[in-house]
């Protein structure tokens, strides 16, 4: 069985990918599905995992199967590039606190990207 943190991380990755593929932002999901901003943020940051009724709503919203939100994505099943393998090798050498720092940095970069995307939408 997969650890709870890994399940949250996997859901977060899948939701971000699906949002990107569909051109949807966090604000779109909040507005269109009447979800709380903080709740969606927690999902996207891998802090919380949604209840099944919310997963079903997201699946219907994106017209996808529930499995696409909660399973290992096709992209993660693909083989890794040499750069990705090198990054993983180096990451595994870090302490737990350093690993968390790296994850926080990645989350921050993704947050910046999301904010930048939302700002671009407002100018269109």
List the SSEs and their pairings.
Layout: H1 4-22, H2 26-33, H3 37-44, H4 52-62, H5 66-70, H6 74-77, H7 82-92, H8 96-123
Main beta-sheet annotation: none
In whole angstroms, the N-to-C terminal distance is 45 Å
Average per-residue pLDDT, rounded, comes to: 87
Please trace the helix and strand order, writing H or E for each element.
HHHHHHHH
Tag the structure with descriptive keywords:
124 residues, mainly alpha, 76% helix, 0% strand, globular
Q: Can you characterise this structure?
A:
With 124 residues, this protein is an all-alpha fold. Helix content is 76%, strand content 0%. The longest helix is centred in the last third of the chain and has 28 residues, at 96-123.
């Amino acid at each position: 069985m997969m650890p709870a943190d890994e399940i949250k991380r996997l859901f977060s990755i899948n939701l971000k990918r699906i949002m990107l593929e569909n051109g949807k932002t966090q604000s779109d999901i909040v507005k269109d599905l009447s979800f709380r901003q903080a709740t969606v943020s927690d999902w996207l940051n891998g802090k919380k995992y949604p209840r099944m009724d919310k997963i079903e709503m997201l699946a219907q919203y994106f017209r996808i199967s529930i499995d696409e939100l909660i399973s290992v994505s096709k992209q993660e099943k693909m083989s890794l590039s040499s750069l990705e393998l090198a990054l993983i090798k180096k990451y595994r050498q870090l302490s737990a606190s350093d690993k968390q720092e790296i994850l926080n940095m990645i989350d921050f970069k993704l947050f910046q990207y999301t904010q930048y995307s939302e700002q671009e939408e407002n100018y269109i």
